[in-house]
Amino acid sequence: MAGGKCLALIAHDQKKDDMAAFARANRDLLSRWKIVATGTTGGRVLDAAPDLDVTRLKSGPLGGDQQIGALISTGEVDALIFFVDPLTPMPHDVDVKALMRLAIVYDIPMALNHATAIKLLPTLEA
């Protein structure tokens, strides 16, 4: 991912509608970013805001969370917005925890819910 700032977008299944609505409502701010997203989330974001520059990776449980983690560790992702569903058990919960750990270790801005994402996004420089 050469050039430009990169924002990662991820949403658990029960939060994908929220992420699509977030992308639609914030398309102007998001259009300043290169976006990487897990597979299904990226598809939903593109459906909601087709003009955004979104690269879809694998689905989260199939390695997409780990792909984004790798991009964080190499400095290719500058911020993470991850709409987490805390009420549904996730079979790939260890991957999710590892991803959040990497965001903390590499000290990138991270929003885990809509309210934080709304506050964070305008403060980020693309």
What can be said about this structure in brief?
Helix content is 43%, strand content 17%. It is an alpha/beta fold and 126 residues long.
Using DSSP, what is the number of strands? Answer: 5
As for the number of domains, it is 1
Strand content: 15-25%
| Mean pLDDT across all amino acids | 93
CATH topology: Rossmann fold
From the N-terminal CA to the C-terminal CA, the straight-line distance is 14 Å
CATH architecture assignment name = 3-Layer(aba) Sandwich
Q: Give the strand order, joined by hyphens, for the main sheet.
A: 3-2-1-4-5
Level-1 CATH class name: Alpha Beta
What is the rounded Rg? 13 Å
InterPro entries: Methylgl_synth, Methylglyoxal_synth_AS, MGS-like_dom, MGS-like_dom_sf
Active site: 65
Catalytic activity: dihydroxyacetone phosphate = methylglyoxal + phosphate
Family: Belongs to the methylglyoxal synthase family.
